[in-house]
Design brief:
heterotrimer; A mainly alpha; B mainly alpha; C alpha/beta; B: mainly alpha; 3-stranded antiparallel β-sheet; 15 helices; elongated; C: alpha/beta; Rossmann fold; 6-stranded mixed β-sheet; 4-stranded antiparallel β-sheet; 9 helices; 10 strands; 33% helix; globular
Amino acid sequence: MLRILLEKELRDIIYSTKFAITFAAAAVLVILSFYVGTRNYHESVREFEAARAADATNISSLNDWMQASHRVFRKPQALEVLVNGVTNDVGRTTDMRTSGELNLINSRFSADPLFAVFRFLDLNFVVIIVFSLFAILFGYDAINGEKEAGTLKLVFSNRVSRASFILSKLLGSVLALGVPLLIPLLIGCLMLLGSGIPMSGDEWVRLGFIMFAGLLCFGVFLTLSIMISAMVTRSSVSFLLSLVVWIFSVLIIPKGSVLLASQVATVPSMDVIESQKRKFSSDQMARRMKEMQQWFSTRAMSNDTGFAATFGAFQDSVMKAYEQERANFYGRLNEDWRNKKDWQEKWAFGLSRVAPTAIFQIAAMNLAATDVEMKYRYQQELNRYQDGYAKFIKSKTGSMADYMRVVIKRYSGTDSQEEKKKNLNPTEIPEFLEQPRALGSAISASLLDVGLLVVLNALFFAGAFFSFLKFDLR
Amino acid sequence: MWKTIAEKELRDHLQSTRFLVAASVSTILIVMSVWLGITHYKARVAQYEQGVQMMLDLASQQTNWNMVTAAAWRHPDPMEILSNGVNSDIGRYSDIGSYRGVRLVRSEYSEDPMLAAFQFLDPTFVVLIVLSLIAILFTYNAINGEKESGTLKLVFANRISKAEYILGKLIGSWLAILAPVLISFLLGALLLILLGTGFTASHWGRYAFFVLETVLYATCFMLLGVFVSALTHRSSVSFLVLLVIWICAVLIVPKAATMLAGQAVPVATTDEIESRLASFTTQSWADFSQDMMKRSRERFKDVKDMKPEDRQQAFANYQKESETKRKEMDQKISDYTSRLYEDYYNQKSRQELLAFSLAKISPASQFQLATMKLAGTDVALKKRYEDAMKEYKTKYGNYVSQKGGGMFSIRMSAGRGSTSGSMTGPADTKVNISEMPRFNDPEYSFGAAVTSAMFDLGLLALFNVLAFVGAFVAFLRYDMR
Amino acid sequence: MLRISYKSLIVINEGTVMDQPNVLEAQKLTKVYEDGLCALDHVSFSVKAGEIFCLLGDNGAGKTTTINLFLGFLNPTEGTPFINGIDVTKDPLAAKQHVAYLSDVVMLYPNFTARQNLDFFARIGGRHNLKRDDYYNVLRQVGLQEKAFEQRLKGFSKGMRQKVGLAIMIVKEAPAIILDEPTSGLDPKAANEFLAILHQLRAQGRAVLISTHDIFRAKEISDTVGIMSEGKLLAVKTRAELEHENLERLYLDYIQGKVAA
């Protein structure tokens, strides 16, 4: 009996005009999102290369490593174009320095506000908007539609149990609607393969998980709407209800939760921290000036290179001490602020998880490493690199000192020899290689949300099941 | 006779469950988004005031004008409540110094990626998504639904022409949609007044236009709904078709258009421009410093041989000379910068023109762009502020050089990022910032806003007319049997 | 807009008519579709004031097409439908003023109450100054329960909706009445009530055209029966003629083509 019902369900759905139209639309959009993603990636890579070339030109026009200003650019990662997350809002460029705090500037959207107007079409967007709508369109009248058409009574005038009927409905819908979605997803993956975007094994695994989560999200909406259909007698009402659920889940709850959390669980603005840092920095500067004035006042300026070397040594020791002090102070401020922010973010995303689409998006962002932590992870990578860069500069210039060294050099008249020095070779600079987020860490971060999606599926599945057992067939 | 039809249509809607649900949902959402917008706006204003104050406090601690870092902050505008646009993607302030260019940094989203994860819920968004869906929900079965329930034939067994009928239907449906829209925006206005957002007359004028745009937008989809309903005989089909149209118009076309334009008109990135500028600047200053070093060594020699009375005068002359030379260098760099950015902006405008022209196929883009222009949160925001800040930078630079830049000032641009300083500054007296010129936000008047949004408004109106004609004609040819 | 009052209609007895001789007249009505399908083939008949004419035939015989032609929903390929002497093809709007219609699908407006539905269709039909009580009277006349007057049609049974449809028809006070399969889906009691009302309408002097495939009702109520099959009007029999014949046999014979038209 279950088999017969299941077969009828599959056939009923797949041969309907509704399925043809909506599946075509969903498939086109999925493929489009992969296409847009690949184009986006190539475009980002082009920008990345161009920026690096310009920076290299800049450096090779100079002849003194101490004057060189090196900019580090963020290389685009494959999964970012499928799940944008906050990628386009985080700065991609850093003015690299041997010491001091590094800032991220020129995010995609701040540099190119044109793209911020409508933003990008990514796979995340298609799952959240289209998959959910697709599910609702089929689920809302799964049960009460049959009642209205009179077929429900007809079926149950036979030897059919309620359990087998609702099971066939649930399984049938899931199979008839969910499995076909795999087709455009796989086509998209093939497009990725053929597009020349380098993807490592673990990135494929992460993509697999993202798609799995997407199908789970689809499942949640499907089972939920079927459940509603088994609780409400009229399909026009269950449709309205499902639509309202969709509007709130997709559009309102995620945004609302974040905004609410930012108002209720307030965190001091980063500006305050910045201002404290500036004050500290400027105080430090004043103290350094005083120390240097003192040092100079006890020595006579002289032309010999020995003087420059002594000054260099003094600079280095002073710098080290100040740098340590600064790092400690900034570090404490940052950590403090991060803790408060963490708490706020927990509230924001916790609340948003009422909406299944938010659960999916959070999971996807974690898997693609484009979640809100991305900025801080990137900053840590840069800090790591900074050590190596500082060592490099020291090896080239003999010190980590800043402009004061130049002043002394110039003043001591040694610059006439500078003109004969050759231009810098930018390829000597150690390359910045951003370590991608470890697969294990990405998966474990998304585990909660993927698990939640599974639980919701089971919950609504059971809900639909038990609601139907009490459904009035007449 | 059309009056009777209109009355019946209006009443039918008002007495239906879907109207109740849709009207309450949309009203709640619009009011909620206004409220959220207001609280966030106030937070932004607080942040702004804090930022400006901190800058002033820090400045007043300095003992030397060269150590002062001025900043020009963007004052939040209450219209952001209605349409956030690209506001959160543009930097909130720029450091102002004579040795670095104007650059808006630390946008809201880059500072707080948490907000960027799901972005804002502003009334524009609610209208864009929810009102259009509701309009479709109300009218997808306007014609074919009546056919399916037999009332179409029943009505036309009377002395009524098709034209009268469709006119009455359109008017009745329009009024039904108008009601919740006007109510929600009235409530929104109430909220704005009660919570003290400082709306001026210019703001209210723009608010009125915003409501007008909303009405045009909703009407567009209402007419589209009736149109498609008059093209098909089954309401389930017209619903699906309208849903697909909605997804394309609201979600796909705008994004696709921008992407296409991005591909078709390649523009150099900001990073490239900045690198080129940095390269030129470093080179220029390097040459300049070398030059200055040579001169100062010569002068030092000269001064040695002078009488003490003449030394003072000589120093003053040398100072003046340095200043002139520095000004020349500044000018040279500034000219290069302008040329560089002019090219960049020209390319960018071409890209934008293409993107928006393509996007305007969809009434959703027309609506979004019009509201952003009205609120001043469109892409022109960035340039408007950058231009104003550049002017301010010149003014500020003049003021600072008047105040004297210390005797032995050195400037290093794009170096290790440290500020310039003089080795021998005056004694520990703090600078007086009370007369420091302040940054004034560029004006964005009511007139400017409306003229800028006028074209898109006009397009929306045109779309409405087309949809109206479409619905009318489609019904005149509708087979009632 | 003209409001034509029929209050001056004289009550008929013995079939004499003081108004236009033929309220409804079909003159050689023919309808051939573009694909060659001939839905109606030179059908001619007339319905006088105070007469109930039944078009009897199976599905696809052309009954609904005939009705659609009278109501101006279709244009005839040949021939002319007349309502009260007005050529429907030439002046459809004026013609519709003189006819009231009840279809088999009576969904009406589910969000409206019975009275609101009635009110709307009354206005559409040209009667603008009726009061609430007038509506209530008509609803009572058709046998609708009092408590249903202000209830939304959403919960009505088919019989109840049919009654509202009838009320709509009555309140228009048109000289011609066209009914499309009116008794399908009605229980015997409701059908009887319905027929009683039809009798009243006939007594008021209206011309009634009914299309049905219910032979028994047709025999019971009609003054004249027209048998249709495959677009042709095969026979027209008056009540007198039918009394001596077995209508069922006749009908089936005609349908099966055993008897020539």
